[in-house]
Amino acid sequence: MIYYIRSEFVKALTRKYTRYYLLGILAVCLLANFAMSAFRSIIYGMNDGTFAYNLIMFAKGFFWVPYYSCIFIADIVFGNSYPDPRIRDKSTIGLSRTNIFIGKFITELLMLVIYAIIALVVFLVITPLFQVHDGTIDASVIIDFAYAVLITMPLFVAGVALGNMFLFSAKTKKQAYLGFAIGVILLPRLIMFLATDHIRLLPCVWITKILITPQFQTLQFYATRDVPKIIISSIIYTVVACIIGCRNFNKREF
């Protein structure tokens, strides 16, 4: 198993989509800072809400963006084609389908950790460079942002598990991405909309409490963060997604 994970990890690191994802991280960090700089210089000037620490605070409320991209992380490890357990190489000899599924998922989590660390470092390096003249970033701001990233990791793990589930369950990648888009992005957003105060459908209000996406909105402020809920819900989503994905992989005929 360890040899298989190491083999998959090396393959993932060398795939071109890994570089594309890293470029995407850089682009998002740059765009966020460009937007803040333009907002300050063109519209409001040096007023409240346009300082560097505001950008870092706002960023915590947009962690749903990388969450929605978790299927790309899963796909980088998943590979160009569906894993065929009949085809054996040095790394897969003696492994069951369940072992292969678990190995893929563990490798995806390793890639997730690497991406998260890189994104954190890049954002915290680029932002002071762009906003250095306002002098509002200190150690407390950086520590709070890093803590927000840390407590969000379980949600990202759940996102990768869901992406992995769709990739292993669908017949084609197109169907997998469509299922992820509907089940993880569009449907939760629709439920959240129907739960807003001006509509307030009671079933949707209740369902919203167990969705992952709304939890990203609580990260901006320390008082609104519910860490136990984040951890518990992430574990439930991750376990359920892994069970479904592994079951479908074991039932698949080749």
Describe the structure.
With 254 residues, this protein is mainly α. It has one domain. The chain has helices at 2-14, 16-44, 52-60, 64-68, 70-78, 97-131, 139-169, 173-194, 202-208, 227-251. Helix 6 (97-131) runs antiparallel to helix 7. The relative contact order is 0.13. The mean pLDDT is 87.
What's this, in brief?
The chain has 254 residues and is mainly alpha-helical. The protein is built from ten helices and no strands. The chain has one domain.
Topology:
Elements: H1 2-14, H2 16-44, H3 52-60, H4 64-68, H5 70-78, H6 97-131, H7 139-169, H8 173-194, H9 202-208, H10 227-251
End-to-end Cα distance, whole Å, is 23 Å
Number of strands: 0
When the domains are counted, the total is 1
Question: What is the helix fraction of residues, given as a range?
Answer: over 70%
What percent strand? under 5%
* Nearest-integer average pLDDT: 87
Rg from alpha-carbon coordinates: 20 Å
Secondary-structure-based class equals mainly alpha
Name the descriptors.
254 residues
